[in-house]
Design a protein that fits this description.
30% strand; 347 residues; Jelly Rolls; binds 1-hydroxynaphthalene-2-carboxylic acid; 6-stranded antiparallel β-sheet
Length: 347
């Protein structure tokens, strides 16, 4: 499918003629449409958290969370500039909420995840319930659920936002609205959904149609415990170290319908075997240091740095200390559409 079609004056004049009729010849573009392997404009890249943090503090002097609605610096993939995309299908940004600030309530079709990077004691409210946030916590905001953020603590709070914005854009399916008040009414106590759904118990006749997990904060303390328990048994995978997937306790599926989220432990000195998959992935180390080789580039990372691995590029990770990496991708969507592929090299 790579053969370039010869040009002749007759053909060129034909193309010009049909162009005026909003028609084009498939045989000139087929090779770009149907590639033998994924070809992506998305490029590997790493953002240092310290740099982003400094720019965010500067932004904090320029605009309030309220005026901005969300004070976020968007992670723009260098191969996809101007499109607010970290990968072809996903959006990512770093958000800051200063003490005393509120990011006002709104809701939209796009699903969001938060992965807390720094700070303690700020909260997010989702669908009438507040949750306090701490570093390493993974929080979800399902499609069309009201959400607002606030910080009544004394430190600025930083987190990574991941949204399915480019997917919703692709389907032209975006709806959004704001609320009159800055904060939505709290109707349930803090910790309610985790107490109900985070204990391996479900209401006997539960009939849930929502696709997102009823748990909206997966606290890092529990996540870390799960990793540590598995670590005690040396359950190392050659490509991933020890990798877990956040799940919806009702369905066993991913926690969110459009975004897959993962947490992985790489023990001190571990070097993974090469791996590639069709789901371009955003990584957020939260503990430890190391480096990742993506294609022919090497990226050194430490806690809170953010990096992106494009679709179908070989990746290896290496850690200098016990390292914990959060990551997210569009894997749930690709799997449901029978598009997901992975390649473990020879491992
Ligand atoms: C959003 O609602 C949040 O709720 C963050 O914190 C980033 C980017 C685009 C559209 C909506 C949030 C967002 C967003």
């Amino acid at each position: 499918m790579d053969n370039a079609i010869q040009k002749t004056p007759e053909r060129e004049s034909f193309y010009r003629k049909i162009d005026g009729e909003n028609l084009s010849a498939l045989w000139n573009v087929m090779g770009d449409l149907i590639t033998p392997e994924p070809k992506s404009a998305c490029r590997p890249h790493l953002w240092k958290f310290d740099d982003i943090r400094a720019y965010m503090m500067e932004a904090g002097k320029l605009i309030t969370a309220k005026e901005a609605e969300r004070r976020v610096l968007v992670l723009e993939n260098p191969g996809l500039r101007g499109q607010s995309k970290v990968t072809t299908s996903l959006y990512a940004g770093v958000q800051m909420v200063m003490p005393g600030e509120v990011a006002p309530a709104h809701r939209h079709s796009q699903s969001a995840l938060r992965f807390v990077l720094e700070g303690e004691g700020a909260h997010t409210a989702v669908d009438g319930e507040r949750t306090m946030m701490a570093p390493g916590d993974f929080v979800i905001t399902p499609s069309m659920k009201w959400h607002d953020h606030g910080n009544q603590a004394s430190e600025p709070m930083f987190w990574l936002d991941g949204l399915d914005i480019p997917m919703v854009q692709f389907f032209d399916a975006s709806f959004a609205e704001g609320l009159e008040e800055d904060e939505q009414k709290v109707t349930r106590p803090v910790g309610d959904s985790f107490a109900r759904y985070g204990r391996n118990l479900l209401p006997v006749d539960l009939k849930r149609t929502a696709k997102a997990s009823p748990i909206f904060n997966y606290p890092y303390s529990y996540t870390r415990e799960a990793l540590e328990a598995a670590k005690a048994h040396d359950e190392w995978d050659a490509c991933h170290g020890l990798k877990l997937r956040f799940s919806n306790p009702v369905t066993g599926d991913f926690a969110m319908p459009t975004i897959g989220t993962f947490i992985q432990l790489l023990p001190n000195g571990f070097k993974t075997a090469r791996y590639r998959s069709t789901d371009a992935t955003v990584f957020a180390p939260i503990e430890g240091r190391g480096r990742s080789r993506i294609g022919d580039q090497t990226f050194e990372w430490g806690p809170r740095d953010l990096f992106v691995v494009p679709s179908w590029q070989w990746v290896t990770h290496e850690s200098d200390e016990d390292a914990v990496l959060f990551s997210f991708s569009d894997r749930p969507v690709q799997q449901k559409l029978d598009l997901f592929r992975e390649d473990r090299g020879n491992a």
